[in-house]
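Submission sheet (multi-component)
Chains listed below:
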Amino acid sequence: MSPFNLAAINFVWLPILPLVVVTVAAMAVLLAGVRVDDSESEGLGLLTLASLAVAFVFTLGILGQYGVAFAGAISVDSFSAFFELVILIAAMFTVMMSLDYAAENRIPGAEYYSLLLFSVLGMMLMAAAGDLIVIFLGLETMSITVYVLAGIMRRNAKSNEAAIKYFLLGAFSTGFLLYGIALVYGATGTIKLGPIHDALASGAMGSNPLLLAGIGMMVIGFGFKVAAVPFHMWAPDVYEGAPTPVTAFMAVGVKLAAFAAFIRVFMVDFASVGAHWQTVLWVIAALTMTGGNLIAVVQTNIKRMLAYSAIAHAGYLLLGMAAGVRSGPAILYYLLGYTFTNLGAFSVVIALERRGEAGNQISDFRGLAARQPLLAGAMAIFLLSLTGVPPMAGFVGKFYIFSEALHQGYVGLVIIAVLNSVVSAYYYFYVLVAMYMQEGGVEVERLSARPALVAAVGLAALATILIGVYPQPYIASAANAFHSASGAEGSHSAALEP
Amino acid sequence: MIPLTYMMSLSAIIFAIGVAGVIIRRNILVMFMSIELMLNAVNLAFIAIGSRLGSMDGQVIVFFVMTVAAAEAAVGLGIIISIFRNRETVHADDLTLMRW
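Outcome: structure written.
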């Protein structure tokens, strides 16, 4: 007999089946790619895409379930499922963008796709975490692989530089997050999210200095990962230097996973001590929106501009978090719209690129509408959605977050946010003007030979419009997901399709 | 028995030294060493709290952190080597291809 009583641990495999699929796929891709030439990695990409689709189907099975697995280490609820599904969608788009890009730029396919899958594993683990250590392990699985992905073009000096900057600041921020976890563990005596929630909700903790320091450290750690000002210094350089599909993956996937854990820990488990952290997030949100938007105005490189735009959008999301539990569903809906919009914008950037060289300047977009009306039209949809123009997803998301914050009396913060949206219109419309009213720019090569990329652009544009024009089901599933994590409402309602 | 305050203070001091090292020093290898120092300070805090609470969690976490730190070291040194091959420098101030 084994001395360990394994039967005492609740081994329910179904909730982690998607994670198992992704892990097995990552190893399979690595093995299958041993003898594949770097310029012929499309097959590996398709294998990756197929396994992500399988994981997606398995994740749908979790929707509507509720509970914990693996002795509380994994939370099984619609919140996990919602984020896992969106992360898997983001990963599938990334693979579609990468198919030709990886082959053309001689990126080693086996390493690239398996690292992508391992990183998805870490992201999903963060979304499904039930204790602080699983959050930490998920974060590191994600981050360590993304450090490598950012620098995967080994002979490209910019890619190197992006990798080392991301690595140093990422590891630095991990130290803060981990110290925060240690202090919260010291204050509450547990690392499991449920018991932490109960300990804090009982009110016995008051303003325990260990707890306060721990919360502060965790804000710093997560602040780095979501690229909030003043912890954003790495983002523009890393976004510019990394291969563009990896940039898209970082701007969307990493942000989704970091927000999933951030929201679950702060808006659910630390909700009862909100007075201690909401003011801090208020200040960070205001700084992030303003800093991101103002610096984006002067950018000439489209990837850098989108990096600052991503920082600004993190600011809007933090606004929702600062405004308290009621805006939770709005944040989830916003993230959904943001995912498709940003992935689409980056796919257009990839379409304009040639061998990772030309096509990254905003001036390269000049006259695009005359040469490629459909591509320019799609880019226009993404830019309008990022600005927040109806009927795009970005508009509904912003409106939803701002109105929830307004309802809770955060007038000052909402005024700052609206003013920032006006500033952001300047730099988004600058690209529109370049596409539609100027001449010059770069030729787009052989778009018809890149069906996966075209599909990514098209699907992202469709989703951006659809989620904006007909938002009700997505808002409903976002609300259901958030409430299933916070336990505020019945989580056993019918399974929803995010 | 050593009071918890002493151990937590020591851990805080070591953590602060690590943070200062990352911010002040410009050699990438030294910055990386400072990050490792931060992680070890956290390990100390976990062990101290774990033994004070009489719970295994703190002790077990340390092994996870050490494993992660090892993986991070492998990747970090790999990146540093590839930078050195391309640029022949390990100085953070020389990495200025991208600004603003």
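Remark: The CA atoms of residues 53 and 258 of chain A lie 22 Å apart.
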